[in-house]
Amino acid sequence: MSAATKTDNNPAPTAIEMIKVKVDGRELEVPRLSPDWQGKLAPTTMIQVCEAAKQDVPHYCYHPKLPVAGNCRMCLVEFGTPALGPDRKPLLNADGTARIAKSPRPAIACATPVSPGMEIYTSTPGVKQMREGVLESLLINHPLDCPICDQAGECKLQEYSVDYGQSGSRFVEAKVHKPKSVDLGPRIMLDAERCILCTRCIRFTKDIAGDDKLGIVNRGSYNTISTFPGTAFDNNYTLNTVDICPVGALTSKDFRFQMRVWFLKDTKSICTSCGTGCNVHIGSREEKIYRYTPRENEAVNGHWMCDEGRLNYKWIQRTDRLRDVLVHGCKSSWGEALREIAHKLKQAPPGSVAIIGSARQTNEELWLLSRLKSRFGAISDSFPRDGQPDKLLVSADKNPNSNGARLTGISFTEAGINLAKIADGIQGGVIKTLLVFGENVVKRAVSPAALSEKETTTEAIEVHGITADVLAKLETLIVSDILPNETTRLAHYLLPGCAHAEKRGSFTSTKGRVQKFMQAVEPAGDARPEWDFLQDLVCNVTGKEGFHSIEGLFNEMAKSVPAFNGLTWAGLGETGVSVKI
Amino acid sequence: MSGSSAIIVVDDTVDIVGALANLSEFYAHESCGQCTPCREGSLWMSKTLHRLSHGQGRKGDADYLLKIADNIPGGRTICAFGEACSWPVQSFVAKFKDEFVAKGAEDEARRARQSAGLGGEKETAEAQH
Amino acid sequence: MSFSIPAGLEAEIDELITHYPVRRSASLMLLHAIQEHFGWVSPEAVQWTAAKLGLEPINVHELLTFYPMFRQAAPGRHQIKVCRTLSCALGGSHALHRHVCERLGLDAGAHGLQTTKDGKFSVEFVECLAGCGSAPVMMCGDDFHEGVSGKKADEILGGCK
User: Fold this and answer.
1) Cα separation of A208 and A397, whole Å?
2) What does the angle CA C94 – CA C95 – CA C100 come to, to the nearest 5 degrees?
3) What is the DSSP letter of A221?
4) What digits encode the pLDDT tens for the residues A42-75?
5) Which of B29, B39, B125 sits opposite A223 (nearest CB)?
6) Is B36 close to A70, i.e. CB distance below 8 A?
7) Is A573 left (phi over 0), alpha (psi -120 to 50) or beta?
8) Which end of chain C has fewer beta carbons closer than 10 Å to its terminal beta carbon, N or C?
9) pTM reported for the whole predicted model
10) Domain locations along chain A
């Protein structure tokens, strides 16, 4: 991945000369050099200046994080530069202002650097006519099948047609026909007739994903995006091409024909599939999640996310979700169960309680567990979850919040080092009460050989000895989870929890970015956000009133956890704050 | 002007519409397709001229061609090929507009006669758009 | 069908690559050399070329499909190209093309490369062959023929073994 997507690009302002340019008559000062798609300093382009001036310049092929191609010609603008006399000195108008020599030819704003005194014209009749011409050209061979196209509603052809197009078409010839429903790879479909040949997908997969598998075959108006015949477009980032495709040419097999985009509710969230913490939009409608798409955050994921994380949402809607509060297998109520648990905990002798949290829980939930931990002098830990990293975004840490677990004191420098001690403690009869949150401890207690291939490759399995037989020795086993498993079946008290999409909270990424996420859908059945019922439990145990809002809880946690000192829920903003880890 | 600074001398027996159709087919074939105006415009002009030179013309095709051609040159394309493919259309239509109009008018009149003969059925060369 | 490049051709290709500062720049020259040897460029040859130059097969496939001179299927032993662009068209190349097609039993109205059933001839109506001053022109293999009449075309075809 380019440096740009990994770090903030704020070159020291003093190092770069500022120049004055005008956009549609408005003067502004811009740096002579600006970060390019890779974050390297390059001459500032017209399109960057127009963006700074909040002057919309329509474009298809230009993308701030891809190499500039300059092929769509939609961003053509007119411009002028200060006229020079034979003595190379600026010519002046009668009023003393610089005389501007207007260029006889337009320029593409995406690839043309600005120079001191340059004037850019984005709204002249000439520019308007050029945009109309390009749009008309793009549309003549386009199938105009918006009613059945998944891109409709977020399509640049539609949007620019409204903003800059003509109402009718003069085209009366037969359209060029190209391949449709092309199975480009396991997750991507191509409709070559919709394609406007901007080459964003080609540049993305070559220069960002590092998998140069797409190209343009044939010539002229018959140009078609393709893989080498017989090969698939298949890397862990292919679905980003669907996001950056400005039209409906590339569609996601997972999302196509599922839901109209204008019906989707957008919720700002975080991907939980690894510790990178890619920012995502959750698209949902009527309590059903339809897709994740990456949300721009230069400090974390740039514009991208991996396919694996993007498609890892279906478990949230599994029909076998835990929906009921169960006490010894019988349906109970939250109030009753939490009162009983509090009662048992209060009677527990010091050192007889152990807590296994999960680095898939939020900072707030882990902090509440840590308060129980200190109240009872409990031993605690969480499970490591290791996987294969890649060079772009995927972290080797498959937990979204390992740092949160560590900073709140649930786990230690190396997650999982206390698990064997907990097993021994139960075996030895010292530990009589165990709280387990979001981890199937039994499954992860057995040897990897007993697991299916998929399980062993996606999650590193720790052999720590907390087997079903060991759990049977406990006086009280309190389990909260989202999906049923061996451990939830053994629970004396089972508390149904929520997926991140069903609650609010924050995670701390592997690089120490504290980021919050919002609730997209309602929890299943009686399930409640873990922070919500943990508050009640802590209140029952300590007698101190907790917080009923995530804001209050986060702010209280920030005061108590040194690494989070000074943070506030509101202050996290939409893209989070980096802390020292 | 035939576009690429070459000179081809033709006498007045040559069908100027057909000659331009031939040239435009060449340009549509040679356009690389990298940038939009040339990629789409060159084939559009070629299709129109093929239609006009094969009895499916319209009176307005001369102006229609000019409008297509006007959308390509003037620095809108990456290379000069875009200019080259529109120049012959612009110059042929400018110099021999009456021939283009007459050809389209003749086709329209013939189609009108044919459709009258067929009981007033409407014939149109227009592709549904 | 296994694909292999004879040692001699590979030596020639290795030498061609040395002409360029960047290996990728030799792509077209390699395709020409391969087509000259095999008569066409197979998908296996594309993969071989890509591997040779450290490219992805799609990079080479793009070139193969862009240039009409490259063959993606085996053509006839003798390839006839008749120019269809303006000067030749005015000089009678349509009649010439029709004549050649009819003589060989091919469809003069068809698009693209056509090959006779016996695999002896391929005929293609192509864009400018750069002989505008002596229209109509045609090529038979690598031989260039100017001012080709029907009779001259018959002689050219007759001379092909």
Assistant:
1) 22
2) 100
3) G
4) 999 999 999 999 999 999 999 999 999 999 999 9
5) B39
6) no
7) left
8) N
9) 0.92
10) 3-123, 142-317, 326-578
Closest CA to A142 of B64, C46, B36, B120: B36
Distance from CA of C56 to the nearest CA of A (A): 7
Q: Which fold has domain A3-123?
A: Ubiquitin-like (UB roll) (3.10.20)
DSSP B39-67: HHHHHHHHHHHHHHTTT---TTHHHHHHH
DSSP of chain C: ------HHHHHHHHHHHTTSSSGGGGHHHHHHHHHHHHSS--HHHHHHHHHHHT--HHHHHHHHHH-TTS-SS---SEEEEEE-SHHHHHTTHHHHHHHHHHHHT--TT--S-EE-TTSSEEEEEES--S-GGG-S-EEETTEEE-S--HHHHHHHHHT--
ipTM, two decimals: 0.93
* Third-level CATH fold of A326-578: Rossmann fold (3.40.50)
Interatomic CA distance for residues A172 and B45, integer angstroms: 11
Instruction: Tell me which DSSP letter residue A461 carries.
Output: P
User: Is the separation of the CB atoms in A520 and A507 below 8 Å?
Assistant: no
Any idea which fold A142-317 has?
Answer: Alpha-Beta Plaits (3.30.70)
Angle of the B36-52 helix axis to the B97-117 helix axis, nearest 10: 60
Domain of residue B54, CATH code: 1.20.1440.230
Which residues in chain C are closer than 8 Å to B22, comparing Cβ atoms?
A: 84-86, 89
Considering CB atoms only, which of B8, B29, B30 is closest to C87?
B8
Length of chain B: 129
Domains in chain C: ranges and CATH: 7-66 (1.10.10), 78-158 (3.40.30.10)
pLDDT tens by residue, A366-381: 999 999 999 999 999 9
Amino acid code (one letter) for B116: A
Would you list the DSSP string of A28-74?
Answer: EEEESEEE-TTS-EEEPBHHHHHHHTT-----SS--TTS-----S-T
Q: Is residue B4 part of a domain?
A: no
> Amino acid identity, residue C43?
P
Does residue A31 carry a pLDDT above 70?
Answer: yes
Distance CA A417, CA C52 (A): 51
Range of the domain at B57: 16-117
Are residues A178 and B43 in contact, defined by beta-carbon separation less than 8 angstroms? no
Summarised one tens digit per residue, pLDDT across range A96-142 is 899 999 999 999 999 999 999 999 999 999 999 999 999 999 999 99
Of A73, A171, A220, the CB nearest to B37: A73
A26 half-sphere exposure, CB direction, 13 A CA radius:
13
Q: Is A149 strand, coil or helix?
A: coil
A215 to chain C: which residues are within 8 Å by CB?
A: 58-59, 61-62
Structure tokens at A1: 């991945």
